[in-house]
Design a protein that fits this description.
Strand content: 5-15%
Radius of gyration: 24 Å
CATH superfamily of the largest domain: Intergrase catalytic core
Distance between the termini: 76 Å
Number of strands: 6
Number of helices: 11
Length: 265
């Protein structure tokens, strides 16, 4: 009897209790194609449609799993653009559906025989009308593990963050990333994408290759500087800038408050 009480009262401790796990990393292009090819070769129509739509829509898992067929279709055709009301913010967000995603969605809907009022990704369990967020998280972990990545470093927010991160890295347009993610504040987009941390880390890696003291009149080659931090290096400290053409030497390189600060004299 005592053993039964102990077994029923036992609760497994969460793996991340007391740990700072940080943000889930976005996928790279090669990772996207690796997962996509595996799903195509395995003829897993539902998972392929789910993966492609998750990348294109950039929706939270709670919004993605509740999508209905009518949300992404116009009559008998799959729409090239869709608008969804977000559960968290109660604000509409718009996203593009690429041709590749439309093809995978069409193949899945024909195979499953879905109608306009049906959930786009119905559950195989009778108790649940659609795939749960927990099941979706398990599916994402399986995708990541199959291509040799650490499943602990990736999650459902990985797919939401992936396309927005790729667009920001190419365009440096924060406002566009904000609209794509449906954030109400620009600061939320900066924090969500980890932009300041990434820029500071890029600068620190570049500066770590340099000597702490440069000979007077010499500066690192511009061609070797990261494009995102060239304007930062043109300033010395926050107090006073260096006059044009003045002699300077980099004496201290540090990362402070997620911003790279280069002091000079």
């Amino acid at each position: 009897m005592d053993q039964l009480i102990r077994s029923t009262s036992y609760r497994r401790e969460p793996w991340n209790k007391g740990k700072f796990v940080g943000q889930k990393a976005p996928l790279k292009l090669k990772d996207i194609w690796a997962i996509r090819v595996r799903l195509q070769l395995g003829e897993r129509a539902r998972e392929l449609a789910l993966f492609n739509l998750a990348i294109d829509s950039k929706l939270r898992s709670c919004d993605l799993v509740k999508l209905r067929v009518r949300d992404v279709t116009h009559g008998d055709r799959i729409a090239a653009r869709a608008v969804v009301m977000q559960q968290k913010t109660q604000r509409p967000v718009q996203f593009e559906i690429t041709e590749q995603t439309r093809e995978s969605l069409g193949a899945w809907m024909r195979r499953a025989g879905l109608r306009a009022d049906d959930y786009l990704f119905p559950s195989r369990l009778r108790a649940s009308p659609h795939v749960s967020t927990r099941q979706y998280a398990r599916i994402v972990r399986s995708w990541v593990s199959q291509i040799g990545l650490d499943s602990a470093a990736y999650g459902t927010h990985t797919l939401r963050r992936t396309k927005a991160s790729l667009i920001y890295r190419r365009t440096k347009n924060l406002r566009a990333a904000q609209l794509l993610l449906g954030h109400t504040k620009l600061e939320s987009t900066v924090r969500y994408l980890g932009i300041e941390v990434d820029d500071a880390t890029t600068l620190w890696r570049w500066l770590s290759r340099l000597r702490c003291n440069w000979p007077a009149g010499q500066r690192p080659p511009v061609a070797d500087r990261p494009a995102a931090v060239i304007p930062t290096l043109e300033l010395t400290s926050r107090k006073r800038p260096v006059a044009s053409g003045a002699t300077e030497s980099l004496r201290c390189c540090a990362v402070h408050n997620h911003r790279a600060v280069v002091t000079a004299s």
